[in-house]
């Protein structure tokens, strides 16, 4: 396996463990709490991550034959997301483990042949040559980056939820240099 790919997989697994550890004790009430009526709650964010991870896995496993190629199939995928937070989190972890397992069992040449990154990075700009040379590492980087963005949202929601109940925030301990 490519050394750079091994490094990115290790980073992904380490980040994934921390992500899961941060969500172990979320209550059903907390998972559906919204700071504003129009805001996303934790479960909506997790459902979004579930859909993205499903797309990553399908793209790696099936390439251009991915079952998610048209609006109807994407709508069906969206409707299949679990409705319970705990189940969504459990299935998201299973999807992530499949994603990593597929990456470990494939070759860089095989992944380069698949049309994986066109939707993962969007059509905003062509990918630089140095990224195109390392498709798999780029996909893993995209997956880590996406998870990190939503992890920050989840942590913020957890802190706000606790603060509205008069409890201390989970992720920002008391800091005498930055009083609340």
Structural notes for this entry:
- The protein is mainly alpha-helical and 180 residues long.
- It has a single domain (3-163), classed as Four Helix Bundle (Hemerythrin (Met), subunit A) (Up-down Bundle).
- It contains nine helices and no strands.
- It has helices at residues 3-22, 28-32, 42-62, 71-79, 85-105, 108-113, 117-121, 129-132, 135-163.
- It is globular.
- Mean pLDDT is 81; it is low at 115-121.
Task: Produce a short descriptive summary.
The chain has helices at residues 3-22, 28-32, 42-62, 71-79, 85-105, 108-113, 117-121, 129-132, 135-163.
CATH class: Mainly Alpha
Q: What multimeric state do the chains show?
A: single chain
What is the overall number of helices? 9
Percentage beta strand: under 5%
C-alpha end-to-end distance: 48 Å
**Mean of residue pLDDT?**
81
Describe the structure using short key phrases.
180 residues; mainly alpha; 9 helices
Topology:
Layout: H1 3-22, H2 28-32, H3 42-62, H4 71-79, H5 85-105, H6 108-113, H7 117-121, H8 129-132, H9 135-163
Helix pairs in contact: 1-5, 1-9, 3-5, 3-9
């Amino acid at each position: 396996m490519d050394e750079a790919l091994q490094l990115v997989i290790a980073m992904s697994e380490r980040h994934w463990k921390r992500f899961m550890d941060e969500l172990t004790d979320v209550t059903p009430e907390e998972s559906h709490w919204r700071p504003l009526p129009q805001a996303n709650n934790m479960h909506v964010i997790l459902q979004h991550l579930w859909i993205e991870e499903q797309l990553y896995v399908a793209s790696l496993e099936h390439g251009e034959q991915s079952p998610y190629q048209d609006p109807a199939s994407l709508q069906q995928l969206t409707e299949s997301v679990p409705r319970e937070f705990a189940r969504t989190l459990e299935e998201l972890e299973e999807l992530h483990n499949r994603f990593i397992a597929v990456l470990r069992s494939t070759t860089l040449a095989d992944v380069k042949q698949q049309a994986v990154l066109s939707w993962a990075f969007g059509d905003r700009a062509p990918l630089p040559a140095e990224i195109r040379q390392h498709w798999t590492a780029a996909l893993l980087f995209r997956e880590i980056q996406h998870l990190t963005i939503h992890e920050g949202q989840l942590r913020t929601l957890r802190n706000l939820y606790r603060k509205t109940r008069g409890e201390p925030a989970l992720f920002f301990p008391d800091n005498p240099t930055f009083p609340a």
